[in-house]
Specification:
Blueprint lengths: L1 E6 L19 E2 L2 E2 H7 L7 E6 L3 H8 L2 E2 L2 E7 L5 H8 L9 E5 L2 E3 L1 H7 L5 E7 L8 E4 L5 E5 L3 H6 L1 E10 L9 E2 L5 E2 H9 L5 E4 L3 E3 L4 H9 L3
Parallel strand pairs: 1-4, 1-7, 4-6, 9-15
Antiparallel strand pairs: 2-3, 5-6, 7-12, 8-16, 9-12, 10-11, 13-14
Protein name: Nucleotidyl transferase domain-containing protein
Organism: Candidatus Yanofskybacteria bacterium RIFCSPHIGHO2_01_FULL_41_27
Keywords: Nucleotidyltransferase, Transferase
């Protein structure tokens, strides 16, 4: 089984940490973020398609084409056009099979990823107080399936909302849908999955652990809060 790991971005919000280093190679707990990601992959995964762009040679030099039992192939995202575009770049390698999509700059737990893989189509979520009001809340409907998104009210932001974790279990049905273009010109994978969820049930899977590394202060938070 394959996983698509999104590791193309510049990580501009990390400031000097990413001036000469791709974000996925920032070290947390003594290892690059992307190494933690590969270590968290469940047993069925035996191939990683890593989507790269910014300082991609550093990633290739560090991991080469094998990590433990995981074969690695690299896919170049030619332009920074969002998460859906990144997955579409890998389309030719994802025919007639289920696959896992992960952010290459977040920290995940193997047990959570195994839970997601129990379903044919899944969307990893977690209840958190978001760091800003720009985050979108995930709506869960019948049978715990993804039903939509909404902009949360101030009261919801204080209590916590269901947030997307960047974990998706998909198959090639997703490529039958036009990638959704966002206001910033990028193409969003969660928004495209929502369109698919109108036709096929996509299970919302509650995850227990997830660390998003967006700003320099998130590095220390992850080292304190995340169990490696």
């Amino acid at each position: 089984m394959k996983t698509v790991i999104l590791a193309a971005g510049k990580g501009t919000r990390m400031g000097e940490h990413t001036q000469n280093t791709p974000k996925s190679l920032i070290r947390i707990g003594g290892k690059p973020i992307l190494e933690h990601t590969l270590l968290s992959l469940p047993h069925p995964i035996n191939e990683a398609l890593i989507v790269v762009n910014y300082l991609s040679e550093q990633i290739k030099d560090y991991f080469s084409y094998k990590f433990g039992n995981i074969n690695i192939n690299y896919i170049e995202q030619k332009e920074f056009l969002g998460t859906a575009n990144a997955v579409w770049e890998a389309k030719q390698f994802l025919k007639n099979e289920k696959f896992l999509v992960l952010n290459g700059d977040d920290l995940y737990n193997k047990n959570d990823l195994e839970k997601c893989l129990n379903y044919e189509l899944a969307f990893g979520i977690i209840k958190r107080i978001p760091p800003s009001d720009k985050f979108i809340a995930i709506d869960i409907g019948r049978d715990q399936n993804i039903a939509g998104f909404h902009k949360p009210e101030p009261s919801e932001l204080k209590e916590g909302i269901l947030m997307a974790t960047g974990v998706y279990v998909l198959d090639d049905k997703i490529f039958n849908y036009e990638p959704v273009k966002l206001s910033n010109g990028e193409y969003g994978l969660p928004q495209t999955i929502l369109n698919m969820a109108k036709d096929y049930p996509v299970k919302g899977v509650i995850m227990e652990k997830w660390s998003q590394i967006n700003y320099p202060e998130d590095i220390k938070k992850a080292e304190i809060n995340f169990t490696f």
